[in-house]
Amino acid sequence: MKVKILKGTNQIGGCITEITSDKGTKIIIDFGEDLIEEKVPIEIEGLTKGNSIYDAVFITHSHGDHIGLVSFINEDIPVFIEKETKKIYNLSSDFMTDAKPIKRLTKEITFGKSVMIDDLKITPYIVDHSAYNSCMYVIEGDGKKILHTGDYRNHGRKGDNFLKTLKKIGPVDLLITEGTTFGRSNEKFKREEELQKEACSIFEMFHQVLILQSSTNIDRLVTFYKANNHTKKYFIEDLFTATIASQLSKTIPSPVTHQNVSVWITNKYYKKPQPFKETYIKPMEQYKKNKPFHHDFCMIVKPSMLKDLKEKLYDGGLLTNACLIYSMWDGYLKEESIKNFKEELEHMGVTFLKLHTSGHADMEAMKQVEEILKPKKTIFIHTEHKGMASELFKNVIELEDLEELSV
To answer: Which of 29, 197, 229, 365 registers the highest number of CB atoms within 10 A of its CB?
Structure first.
């Protein structure tokens, strides 16, 4: 087999991996947007334009930097995607003006069930990440075995299962994996269970707890819901979070499945087109509670909710002892909307706190991956510091974009 990283050897996000068998079967893993403000769709001959030369595309998870350009793929190329991943991405697209839902035909994958693309055997496995039902792929062909991990970690709620799966996969000829945290920190990242304990302590200190987190980070939603129950507060979700949570597993806290969860539908959603209101507002209106803010509460918030928060909570005198927990990557704090949101809430007397753990692997997790898989060769993508890889792994190949490697 031959491997070529079309994009991603020197950047985080927007990674595109090409794998070709000796027979000429070609697949792509992930086709997402760059993590920059100017998002320009990439054009690839035989994938997004011209006669198709690729046999299939496989998506690892629902984050836009891995799936965001899927709608540009030639219609005759099958796209394989886990069903909940597709659901989350399409919901996100409906709620956000700059995203495009998947309207093309796709093929669903099932964890542990192999797919044959001519002479290549591709097997998806669930992986621990901050996106629900993320997956990694084992690609077998020409007597060789490749593992593409996608984004991963081992300190989330699926971390222990992730290591067990690696042991099941066993040694590989080539490992294609992420180095997102190279150059950021050498510390061991906190487990979700540790965050939960810290959250319980914070919840006991404040009457009103506002939480700024990604709605698609289901692990984190569960963490805060459990802390909420420990301190007997009322749990409130914005419409976007409530919609995603209600359409996944019944164990995930949502107004539809949990009696102590309410939905708050802010004014901006009532200004949406009628089809949106029929699809998303109408089914949720029955789960609005009359006076959810007249109790101690915990609420998932968004910067777009600032005006509503000021009118309902601050002007209404309902913020008596409140905090805002920021639970995302620190880099997002530089964005104007989040920076302004934080400052405005602080002007309202809301205490700002940070409580987060990464969705990506720390150094210890990476070492465990190498110890278990014993890869003959390793390529790092999804990183700005691939030169650091040789400090952890033995057989690192430092590829540049478009450079080909024989396995």
So the answer is: 29
Check if the beta carbon of residue 376 is closer than 8 Å to that of residue 174: yes
CB count within 10 Å of CB 60 equals 28
pLDDT surpassing 60 at residue 98: no
Q: How far apart are CA 70 and CA 104, in angstroms?
A: 9
| Residues 82, 23 share a domain | yes
Contact 345, 142 (CB under 8 A): no
Residues 152 and 11 in one domain: yes
Judge contact between 399 and 382, C-beta under 8 A: no
Global pTM? Answer: 0.93
R_g over Cα of the chain: 22
- Order across the sheet with 208-213: list the strands: 261-264, 234-238, 297-300, 208-213, 322-327, 351-354
Calculate the CA 153 to chain-centre distance: 12
Q: For residue 270, give every residue at least 6 positions away whose Cβ sits within 8 Å of its Cβ, in sequence order, or none.
A: 277, 281
Amino acid 162: pLDDT:
93
pLDDT over 90 percentage in the chain: 85
What pLDDT is attached to residue 38? 52
Same domain for 219 and 158, yes or no, is: no
- List phi, psi (to 5°) of 313: -95, -50
- The count of other CB atoms within 10 Å of the CB of residue 248 is 18
CA dihedral (145, 146, 152, 153) positive or negative: positive
**Domain extent at residue 329:** 192-354
Q: How many Å apart are CA 65 and CA 32, to the nearest integer?
A: 4
DSSP codes, 277-289 = IIIIITTTGGG--
Q: What percent of the chain has a predicted confidence (pLDDT) above 70?
A: 96
What secondary structure letter does DSSP report for 176? E
